[in-house]
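Quick question: what would this complex look like in 3D?
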Amino acid sequence: MATVETGPGRHPEWYAHATGDKFGKVTDAPVGFGHMKRKEDARFIRGLGDYTDDVRLPGMVHGAILRSPYAHAKIISIDTSAALAHPKVAAVVIAKDLETLGLAWMPTISYDTQAVLAGDKVRFHLQEVAFVIATDAYAAQDALQLIDVDYDVLPAIVNCRKALDPDAPLIRDDKVGQTDNLASPLWEAGDKEQCDRVFAEADVVAKRTILDPRSHPCPMETCGMVADMNPATGQLNIYNANQAPHAHRTVYAQVAGLPEQNIRILCNDIGGGFGNKVPVYPGYVCAIAGSIVAGAPVKWMEDRSENLASTGFARDYLMYSEMCSKNGKITGLRVDTITDHGAFDSTAQATKFPAGFFHIVTGSYDLDGAHCQVKAVYTNKAPGGVAYRCSFRITEAVYLVERMVDALAMEMNVDPVELRMKSFIRSDQFPYETVTGWVYDSGDYHKAMKLAMEMADYEGLRKEQQEKLANGEMMGIGVAFFTEGVGAGPRRHMDILGLAMNDGAELRVHPSGKAVVSLSAQTQGQGHETTFAQIVAEELGISPNEIMVRHGDTDKTPYGLGTYGSRSTPVSGGAVAVVSRKVRDKARQFAALMLETRAEDLAWEKGRWYVKGDPERGSTIESIAEYAYSTSNLPEGLEGGLDANAVYDPPNLTYPFGAYIAVVDVDPGTGKVHMRRFIAVDDCGVRINPMVVEGQIHGGLVEGIGQALMEIISFDEQGNCLNASFMDYLLPTALECPAGGFELGETVTPCPHHPIGAKGVGESPCVGSPPCITNAVVDAMYHAKGIKHIDMPCFPARVWAAMNGNAEPPQ
Amino acid sequence: MLVSISINGQVYSHDVEPRLLLVHFIREYAELHGTHWGCDTSNCGICIVLMDDPQSDQPPYPVKSCTMLAAMAEGYEITTVEGMPKPDGTLDPIQQGFHEMHALQCGFCTPGMMSTGRWLIERHPNPTQMTDHEIRDGISGNLCRCTGYDNIVKAIRWAAAYIEEHPESARTGAR
Amino acid sequence: MAMQTPAPCDYSRATSVDDAIAQLDALGGNARILAGGYSLIPMMKLRLANPGHVIDINPIEPELNYIRQEGNEIRIGALTRHVNMLESDLLARTFPDIFREAEAVLADPVVRNRGTMGGSLCQSDPAEDLSGVVVALKGQAVLRGPGGAERVIEMEEFHVGPYMTAVQPTEMLIEVRYPIHKGFGGAHEKVERRAGDFAIVAASAALSIQGGTIREAGIACSAVGPTTMHIKRAEEELIGQAPSEQLFQQAGEIASADVSPNSDGRGPADYKRAVAGVLTQRALSRAAATALR
């Protein structure tokens, strides 16, 4: 039985050889949690995935975007006549055309506005200026060259430290009342006075300026959309790779003035998200406007340079920090941050948390005092900031605290693991409230750290390091211990644009005893078609092969805020567990009727309700389902059918944690860093599918290698983006990873408040690895030459400069 | 100009612009969507397909279909992911290996990655003896953002071992 | 499908070398030779190169893909693929291990299936690995023009500047000839930001050691000048000397002094200058060890 849905625009004959017993069924599927191969593999290994660029609709035309060559310039005039004269061009849209539709500017998730097409001026290099619609994509690109734009170049702000200089040019002169380049007012957390007292009493203080540079999530599939407005019915179908389809639909309804029920978003398969596919991009609005105007489906797919240069970047946090200790234990932390949001504030944040969850920066430590403040500025760069598996700024926070712990260990002249062990929150302190207001649910940090040290043979490594040093070789051992908070979030304080961060789930068990569970979560490769079936399987005892997971179509799935911030398991997973239990409880009512007993006399074992004390007498879920849909007499209050829905409001975030150790070898002659080993012990509570969890960890660790060693979005003084292609935005290949593979370990500390005891995990490896690897590089330089700091990325030239005492932050 | 290309044993003939890239011929004209694209500068390998020169005795080798004009492919045999299974639908060992070892997540790089993996096995005199470095170097022209590569290495090893045990499952031609 | 795509152009295939040249001649400078395509097509997609016509010479591979010895030279045809040079036993025996080392780090294995020696040399990217090898081996380029006229030039003459060669619009590179020396040892050292990337700096060294002294020396550094830099001064210091680490360190210092690197995204000039010296020393040291094996 095929478990893949056909959707609009797909050819039935592609499935001709795909039906049949073997397709979509996985061998050795556990009924519940455990190692299980993935059901979704069936289409991907055959090349039958259905990604946005695969969508073909009759009459479809192609859009392309003309982009600004300047970072900051007034637009004097735009001449589209030559482009319009091109025989294959159907339309050219510029800002003033969008103004008549009220679409020249759009709201962002951070309550700012962003230009869809630049009208008065351009504010970042490669900003959107015009949208061409042509009958084929090659012609659309040709036509871009025929548009003539006259610019008056203005000075650009590229350095966030200069954004608030009194003579800095005003970037957002479109905003009434904006007189400077402050994007968002100062935000702070923690008790400043308490923190000052702690520092006053400290033995040792370490100070560092730490940059988490701008990088990019860079999924393998770029962003794009096919917008199909039916002029006769007013129905707008949108095919779009999008991590939050329901939220986008709500936004489009507001922005385009269309009734929300007339908008359908279909995300079929997504070639990676990593936060890149959360924002609403100008290209989307252009495609929708284009479809409304042209009366035909409009496809817009961005190329890789557009993806790197204009879509939501990540990080760009400049942090001034001090950490202190007393009696050998870390006691205080203060951080003063400038964050560069680019030309428009489009960070994805929960409303009450404009700096995301950065204030989890106290990390895994039992501090007496902490204070952090974050100031966001505008610069002439692309908008964004919250992306790339960051858990809402937790990558930045963990990078800061784990670098600072190593810095403090250097100042104290103690081993960095020893300092951590002395300073960790102890397992008996959970649930633990941090001095910045987080309540960590559960953890045993010492256990995880010890396991990592055992796996790495930490003492052996330190000995080897000494031997190598004597030989003039440089070897570094880096440690990081992270705690994150994921699974946003409780409705009482977490919303995006006023939409509570809760997720719905619907479960229908059919008369045959097989089921469909509909999710609001949106997989981009995380394996939801398998793992969520496993959750239902665990609760109901139906094989995951017989449970279809439906997602990706806003018409057919319950409302929810989408997949990012590692929230799928904590929130949607909670919803699915809860809805499964509702079905199970309903099944109990039917079983009582079938077995002619009372519901309270029944007990559950996976797959059946049976009479307590008489286990031979029971009803399987399959027989209950058949009964539920039959004509049997039902008492007052019990409706037929075996289905339920639920909206899950998580009581708290979940707090996964991990101990990571990296071993690097550094070539003293060239500064080249070689990843020798990476040991990762992760604790994400109960693991639904260990195979899927490990895959997530592998992927995130490589993203950490990327950030630590080679990924950066940088600019020249004029604000030109220098890394807008894969020639200069470098992603790790298999050769940059440890040759023998990653060494993974686990501890399991269940989440006490989550229905299945699980915590999120998708972002953890990307959170813990950048500071771990950077710490390793610094460790190598410190032991060889007394160098105490370097900022990522650790290109050979940058490591070499640091070794020679010339470490500069990257531009 | 008329371009005729044999893909997965079937000839597709279309009148196209000379500048049309092979990847677009495959996707838009042959309507085979399993071959994807990911960059502008021939770095990512997402678009890799296997190419076979009927006049050469070399096994089919991976090429970046975004870096070839469709016209250049005339006269060669192209194998895309759709052509990997046997005619009766039995999966190629490389496909099965990727499933067994969880070597894919979003699936976007998977067709290109499997093409390269299959080539590594076919051209190596003793595939089950490939070292970690040989495999990793072999796939260094294929970027993946999801899997972290470890399971891909395992999948290629799985397929090599499977072929050694079931030699009839190996394929030496694009057909 | 919106990857960047080439501007409109015409396409034809060549049936022979002379046919390719005749087409070049007839098209009057608006045509480019298309071999592997991994240099030209990316440039066309970025619209940095907009030839009106491309002449596909892959069909003449039987004529131009060869690695053979003729007299005291190895001759390699311009359409020889990188993978052929990587796997060639003849090259590995005659010039251990310089070809293999450079080819192993040139681009990636997929590109190497189609990319050609001729294409790489004619692209004349200052950071290109093979050019360093050819310069160190004192290779000579054979160019053929209309009517079969041929000329042979040194690599220094061949590489005129970044992305510029001495090949005239109606000429084609057809072969490179490499003199064979007894007691040969060669090596290629490269530092890059990531596997497959162009070199931040690379050094190629070729030595002929006979009777315990260096008889011939070839040293080239890539990515540290407008074209591949031929470090003649260091070569002169080595001739007639016994190989030693101290000697190679001196050669490295000369390389550092004589290169002209630019600062760019791969690294600042002072880094490249310093590393040119380090890699030159390492390449020489390994070349000598290979020669004495």
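Answer marked as accepted. Chain C touches chain B at residues 1, 3-11, 34, 37-38, 41-42, 44-46, 54, 56, 58-59, 104, 107-111, 113-114, 195-196 (CB under 8 Å).
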